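Work Package 3 (structural annotation) set out to generate three-dimensional models for the target panel prioritized at the project kickoff. During this period the team completed the workflow that converts sequence records into C-alpha cells, so that structures can be stored uniformly alongside our sequence database. As a representative example, we reproduce one entry of 144 residues exactly as it appears in the project archive.
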Amino acid sequence: MERLRLLQRLRDAFRAGEPLPVDALELVAEATDMLETGAEPAEAFGLALAAGQEHPAAVLAREKRDAHLRTALTTCPGDSAWAKASALGRAVREFESRRWPTWQRLDEPPARASLLERELFRAFRTGSTVPRSTRWLKRLADGH
C-alpha cells in the first residue's frame, strides 16, 4: 500500500510541476534495477498481491470514498452521530436514485450542486460501493 501511495505522490507532484519526492524516485530507481534483472513489474514495485490480499486500488478507492462521506456528514443536520448518519443515509439513497443516473457521465458535479451533492458525486465516482445503512455511516461518523 505504501509503495502505491509513493507512486501516487510522484505522479501528483509531476503533474503539478512540483519538486519530485526523493523517496518515490528511490522506489522507481530500485524497481528499475529489479526490472533489469528480470523481476515482474508488480514485484519490482512492491505491488505483488499475496493470496487473499485485497488489491491496493480497492483500498485507496474506499479511503477516498470514506473521506468524501465524512465531508458529506458535516453538512447533514442532527445533534448526534446517529442523526447525522440517518440524514446522510437518506441523502445517499435520494442522490443515487435522482442525481446519479444523469450525473454519472460527468467528470465533475454541476456548478449548481450543493457541497453534499458534490461530495456524494465524488464518493460514487470512486467506484467503491457507497454504503446506505445508518449503522455503517454512524461507524464512519465515529471515526472507525
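The mean pLDDT is 92.
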